[in-house]
């Protein structure tokens, strides 16, 4: 049995339905039109990118994951790439999609002269607690996130 080809490419507003469906798997249901607007704003930013992983099986192209990246600089953390979202379809987990998305992030960061990638993960995401260290990430700190509506 041959493994289906995997491609990671920049997501565009036309990919809104696929990105929204995967975001819903992560627990963030989003209307397609809202996602289309978000992807358009991301595509217009030189500091951000969303990449979509697609698996080609026969004549079909199946979206199987995405990663959102942001170039950030702050006075305490310096200049880094940050993964602000990553999801792999439940049907594609443990098949190399996550590692391919991380490799994409590393290439994206290097192209910008960045030497560090940061990711924050919800403590409830048990799989992520195993995935990121296996992908070469070190646990730097644990934190709480507070939100206030205004």
Cα shape: globular
**Estimated share of beta-strand residues:** 25-35%
Q: Which sequence of SSEs, written as H and E, runs from N to C?
A: EHHEEEHEH
Which class best fits the helix and strand makeup? alpha+beta
Cα end-to-end separation? 54 Å
Share of residues in helices: 25-40%
CATH fold-level name = Aminopeptidase
The strand count comes to: 5
Please tally the helical runs, counting DSSP H or I stretches of 4 or more residues: 4
Rg on CA atoms, Å: 16 Å
Largest sheet: 5 strands, mixed
Number of domains: 1
Return residue spans where pLDDT drops below 50 for at least 5 consecutive residues: none
Query: How are the strands of the biggest sheet laid out side by side?
Result: 1-2-3-4-5
Mean pLDDT: 93
In the CATH scheme, the class would be Alpha Beta
CATH architecture: 3-Layer(aba) Sandwich
Per CATH, the superfamily is Gcn5-related N-acetyltransferase (GNAT)
